[in-house]
Here is the input.
Amino acid sequence: MPAATSDAFLQGQGIPVDPNQIEAELTRLWGPAAERVGGPEVENPTVTRIVLANLVVGTHIADAARVDEVVDTVVERYPCRVIVLRQTDEAERKISAEISALCHLPAPGMPQVCSERIALRAGPQALDLLPGAVRSLLEADLPFVLWWTHDPRESEGLFLDLGDECSRLILDLPDPEADPEAVRVGLNLEKIPYARDIAWFGVSRWRELVAHFFDGPRCKETLTRIASVEIRAQAPSLAHTPRVSAWLAAWLAGQLGWQPESRRTPAPGRTEATFRGPSGSITVTTLTESDPTAQFACLTGVTLTTRGPDGETTRRVERPTCDAQEVRIEVESPRACALPRLVHAPTFDAARRVHAALESSRDDPPFRRALPHVLWILGGS
Here is the structure.
């Protein structure tokens, strides 16, 4: 294989290949890179190929640039064999393929760490050929993670075929633009037990901050006195309740054993849900502010109100904007004086959410307890 082609491969440029010759071409292209080991560090850096998992990405060709950008960032932290399935409008019953390397320098003086990206393109008439092509490319004895970035109902057969065999599934739909029914299909744990919603990982830090309010010695009793919750978010549209808002509410309901009673959407950007808790009715309100420049929905605040013998106590976590690196924590109580404080808690971007999904445990009881509640809050059949 010419050196120029190997250089282009290592620089991340896609090299077209026959789908039946992918493994052979990868072996050829990695060969010249290995032969250059020991050369001048700047001109011919050493290369270390690392694969921790098989990451299969289901996406539309229109989203290729966005997905590739996130993949590049994810692989720096979690080196994988990446297999990108790009669904196109091509009428032919065939699969086309290209391969490239994903390389970065972990530290000055260290060898390049490289993974490989295999892109498979197929139109509607060739989708049934993709599962077999994917299986032949999976690295043996490594986890198979399926990262799905569009409505699973559009190619449900392919989605379920791959989901049935994966070690875990990451459902990455737009928030809040995704149809709640698409979320319901994608998170069917009876068919795909290890499915997770990417928005669940967008509220990880918020769950920690809320839980810290109740770390004291008498907090178990305080949890039973929650009377209302208000969750605020910014989102690119008001199409549906943001899933990040719904997941935070559902997490509380699942962990505290609340039972859903009624739900309504009196106005765009406002959802009111009523639960039955240990001490009576609990009102959970989600408020969404439209921000057309936002890439996805993000939480900007949560307020929990508890009622006790001495009156109401209000606990707040607030972020002024999605880009703010700190959140303000404040407690107003008739029994105690607590000064407000700032906590460093930046919003998880798309790559950080995928990182969290890859590094999380496959068995996630809080997620399972929250899932029925989040589907109820989002609505749909």
Notes: Confidence is low (pLDDT under 50) at residues 35-45. Residues 269 and 288 are 5 Å apart (CA to CA).
